[in-house]
TrEMBL record:
<dbReference type="Pfam" id="PF13273">
    <property type="entry name" value="DUF4064"/>
</dbReference>
<keyword id="KW-0472">Membrane</keyword>
<feature type="transmembrane region" description="Helical">
    <location>
        <begin position="7"/>
        <end position="31"/>
    </location>
</feature>
<feature type="transmembrane region" description="Helical">
    <location>
        <begin position="99"/>
        <end position="125"/>
    </location>
</feature>
<feature type="domain" description="DUF4064">
    <location>
        <begin position="2"/>
        <end position="109"/>
    </location>
</feature>
<dbReference type="InterPro" id="IPR025273">
    <property type="entry name" value="DUF4064"/>
</dbReference>
<keyword id="KW-0812">Transmembrane</keyword>
<feature type="transmembrane region" description="Helical">
    <location>
        <begin position="67"/>
        <end position="87"/>
    </location>
</feature>
<keyword id="KW-1133">Transmembrane helix</keyword>
<protein>
    <recommendedName>
        <fullName>DUF4064 domain-containing protein</fullName>
    </recommendedName>
</protein>
């Protein structure tokens, strides 16, 4: 059976996850850079009503969030590639569909909604993998 739609949707989702992985790695690097942290803290200290504790908490959340986004995106990217391999040649489309659906839901939840964009592509591809039935060939004797 031709599964071009599922493969294309999975590739698009994987490319978006790759972009998010790059953004997450960049954010983690950015907030581990001492010079950037000093400039950001100086800028935030000039804001009225912003305390030192608030600023430190916000920077820690951004630093950890970038790392989580990168890790989840890389895992989702690898699972997407595995799903493409399973769908290609119509080997195990049901397993690929389950992997795609679970990956999309978990990535969206873990990244607090950031993974929803690429997760939509994985979710649609996963549903298509599960919904399509193999064509039955009837032989007349």
């Amino acid at each position: 059976m031709n599964r071009t739609g599922e493969i294309v949707l999975t590739i698009v989702g994987a490319l978006i996850y790759m972009l998010f992985a790059g953004v997450g790695i960049f954010a983690a690097w950015l907030f581990n850079n001492e010079q950037v942290l000093n400039e950001a803290s100086d800028e935030m200290m000039q804001q009225p009503g912003m305390g030192t504790g608030d600023m430190q908490a916000m920077l820690e959340v951004l630093q950890g969030g970038g790392l989580v986004l990168a890790i989840v995106s890389i895992i989702a990217l690898v699972l997407g590639i595995i799903s493409i391999i399973l769908v290609k040649g119509d080997k195990k489309p049901k397993a690929a569909g389950i992997i795609l659906i679970v990956t999309s839901v978990l990535a969206a939840i873990i990244t607090v909604g950031a993974g929803i964009f690429s997760g939509i592509f994985y979710l649609i591809a996963g549903i298509m993998c599960l919904a399509r039935k193999e064509q039955q060939t009837i032989t007349v004797e």
